[in-house]
Amino acid sequence: MTKPIQTGGCQCGAVRFRVNGQLGDASVCHCRMCQKAFGNFYAPLVSLHNAKLAFTRGEPKYFHSSNAVKRGFCGDCGTPLCYEAPDGIGLAIAVFDDPETIVPKIQWGIEGKLSYVDHIPDLPGEDTMADQDAVSFLATLVSYQHPDHDTETWPPEKFK
Fold first, then answer.
1. Residue 18's closest CA among 43, 38, 61, 48?
2. Are the beta carbons of 24 and 91 closer than 8 angstroms?
3. Among candidates 107, 104, 90, 87, which has minimal Cα distance to 19?
4. How far is it, in rounded angstroms, from Cα 143 to Cα 91?
């Protein structure tokens, strides 16, 4: 069950949104179009259903990926944001400020599923800082990504 009000946006903060109301079904899509649109193994999306979407900062740019579907993304940083089709709008789950609350319930487009996706949970896992060769680099890393949740101090001076 998702929260009645959710916020989110792209990684640079140029596009932010607010959703009021109960979101619909969450899913992942393995079709080749979604793989390319997200640059990933699959696209995690949640339906707006009857919830209301408002962009509170900026607007997405759109690419018509087919005759029936357009996909919204941030024109500044490229973050995939939404999928718009005749049957409704889906939002990328990971762009929500609290994506942990949006749990996929079904997989679509499994004919396009990459053969190794189901085996990823079997791979060994490590914390980021466990990569000893990267520790010195990671210690100097400064993120310019928008923090989850809006703040009065965004954007940093670098972007003003």
1. 48
2. no
3. 90
4. 24
Q: What's this model's pTM, rounded to 2 decimal places? A: 0.86
First to last CA, the chain: 38
What structural domains does the chain harbor?
5-159 (2.170.150.70)
List the beta bridge partners of residue 80: 73
Where b means 16+ CB within 10 Å and e means fewer, 82-120 reads: bbbeeeebbbbbebbbebeebebeeebbeeebeeeeeee
pLDDT, one tens digit per residue, over 116-149 is 999 999 999 998 888 888 888 888 888 888 877 7
Q: Is 44 helix (H, G, I), strand (E, B) or coil?
A: strand
What sign for the dihedral angle of Cα 156, 158, 159, 160? positive
Cα–Cα dist 4/96, whole Å:
13
Question: Left (φ > 0), alpha (ψ -120 to 50) or beta: where does 34 sit?
Answer: alpha
What the block records as the tokens of 147 is 């923090």
Q: Token pair for residue 35?
A: 């793989």
